[in-house]
Amino acid sequence: MDRSNVITLLSNARSQDATGVWRDGEETQREIFCQVDSVSRAEFFAAGQSGLRPEYMITVFFGDYQGETRLIYNGARYAVYRTYHARTDELELYVQREVGVHG
């Protein structure tokens, strides 16, 4: 796999306060190598029927991904709407641009 691209995975540590309410903690970021491709026509139309607007299929090393649901690629923020375990050591992340988020 060509790993010339880099994405930044985003996560928030959640904790429960004294009243029992769950709160998001500070956002953490970590960079990993990946391969970025356009989504297939079939993926685009299937996701579109569910109200999604897919932009990329990002392939990462399975061991690098820890369930993050947001990422940054080329300065834009994306939400992971689906993952697929493609091969033994690769995971495909299907992403769409986060709505209402700039930069």
Which terms summarize this structure?
103 residues, globular, 6-stranded antiparallel beta barrel, mainly beta
What's a quick, concise take on this entry?
This protein has 103 residues and is mainly β.
Give the helix/strand layout.
Blueprint: E1 5-16, E2 22-38, H1 41-49, E3 54-61, E4 70-73, E5 76-87, E6 90-97
Antiparallel strand pairs: 1-2, 1-4, 2-3, 3-6, 4-5, 5-6
Class by alpha and beta content:
mainly beta
Poorly predicted residue ranges: none
β-strand number: 6
Radius of gyration over C-alpha positions, nearest whole angstrom: 15 Å
Shape: globular
Rounded mean pLDDT score: 88
> How many helices?
1
Give the termini distance in whole angstroms.
Answer: 28 Å
Notes on the structure:
This protein has 103 residues and is mainly β. It has one helix and six strands, in the order E-E-H-E-E-E-E. It has a six-stranded antiparallel β-barrel with strand order 1-2-3-6-5-4. A hairpin with a 5-residue loop joins strand 1 (5-16) and strand 2. The protein is globular. The model has no long low-confidence stretch (mean pLDDT 88).
